[in-house]
Amino acid sequence: MVVLDLGGLVAHERASTVPYTTTPSEVLLYRRANLERICDDLLRFLRLPPPAFLDDTQAVHAMQVSTRAFNVGVAPGAPGSFYQDSVGRGHSGRLAVSYSGWKARHPAHTRSTRHHSSFSTPSTPFPEPTYFTYNITVGR
Q1: Which of 133, 107, 109 is nearest to 7 (CA)?
Q2: Residue 96: CB partners within 8 Å, gap ≥ 6?
Q3: What backbone phi and psi angles, to 5 degrees, belong to 118?
Q4: 66 near 100, Cβ under 8 Å?
Q5: CA 123 vs CA 9, 62, 81: distances in Å
Q6: Considering its fold, how many domains does the chain have in total?
Q7: CB neighbour class for 13 (10 Å; exposed up to 12, middle 13-18, buried from 19)
Q8: What is the Cα–Cα distance from 24 to 112, expressed in whole angstroms?
Q9: Which of 39, 41, 121, 135 is a Cys-bridge partner for 100, taking CB atoms 3.0 to 4.6 Å apart?
Q10: Cβ–Cβ under 8 Å, residues 66 and 38
């Protein structure tokens, strides 16, 4: 089985008190306990999955997902304020994040996989997306 990441948004905890306001006007701080609810709300911005191709055939089944919060490591030289946010939250080098986006599954009998995905974060409201192309060879 091959799982494709078709792009999405990531919410991460922050040292600042700048809030996120959900569709029903719930005001949430970017704290670990709120990240999943923020990502659930962000799904409204991701109405359609980007195209994905498996062995040059377009994938047809994709589903929206929103994850529980999980920890990621951030180095002192990380771009943006990620490391400073980890220090400000009291756990240097580690931040809680949650993912919201599209995933698709495909049987692993494919010989290779190519797909495009884009990523953004809610702190930078939908800048020009970054596109990635992955070429994956599945061995037996």
Answers
A1: 133
A2: 12, 13, 32, 35, 69, 70, 71, 72
A3: -135, 150
A4: yes
A5: 10, 26, 11
A6: 1
A7: buried
A8: 43
A9: 39
A10: no
Contact present, 11 and 105 (Cβ < 8 Å): no
Using DSSP's 3-state secondary structure scheme, residue 55 falls into coil
Its domain, for residue 14, covers: 2-137
pTM of the model: 0.72
Whole-angstrom distance, CA of residue 32 vs CA of residue 38? 10
Q: What angle do CA 105, 66, 88 make, to 5 degrees?
A: 130
Here the tokens at position 122 are: 């809610």
Q: pLDDT 10s per residue in the chain (140 long)?
A: 667 777 788 899 999 999 999 998 999 999 999 999 999 999 988 888 776 666 566 655 788 989 999 999 989 988 788 899 999 999 999 999 999 988 877 665 545 544 444 444 444 444 444 444 555 555 55
